[in-house]
Amino acid sequence: MTTIPTMAILTIFVLSVFVGFEVVSKVSTTLHTPLMSGANAIHGIILIGAIIVANGATSTLETTLSILAVVLATINMVGGFVVTDRMLEMFKGKGGKK
């Protein structure tokens, strides 16, 4: 198995941040709720990936960073579901059932 240099990983990360920001900033406001639902599905996949990486960690640094990744991915996923739930509450009527 070949290892990827750290600089290459950081470059890919920075480029993906810029691409993600540009894509999300161009979405109209009416499409934000479906975008959030799709993002929640992606967050679940990211959480599974973080767990797999944590399982294969060999050094203390890898273990620490992978556990941090699992914690942050969990917070991100749960927060996404909470925000989506609050957004959907806005569409319910005032006298509607819960």
Automatic annotation (TrEMBL):
One example of a Gene Ontology biological process annotation: NADPH regeneration
Broad EC category: translocase
InterPro entries: NADP_transhyd_a_C
EC number: 7.1.1.1
Catalytic reaction(s) noted: NAD(+) + NADPH + H(+)(in) = NADH + NADP(+) + H(+)(out)
Transmembrane segments: 6-25, 37-57, 63-84
Location (main, coarse): membrane
Domain NAD(P) transhydrogenase alpha subunit C-terminal, first and last residues per copy: 10-92
Keywords: Cell inner membrane, Cell membrane, Membrane, NAD, NADP, Translocase, Transmembrane, Transmembrane helix
GO molecular function: NADP binding; proton-translocating NAD(P)+ transhydrogenase activity
Keyword Membrane: yes
Membrane topology reported for the UniProt record: Multi-pass membrane protein
Pfam families reported for this sequence: PNTB_4TM
Subcellular location: Cell inner membrane
One of the record's GO cellular component terms: plasma membrane
Name of the protein: proton-translocating NAD(P)(+) transhydrogenase
Source species taxonomy: unclassified sequences, metagenomes, ecological metagenomes
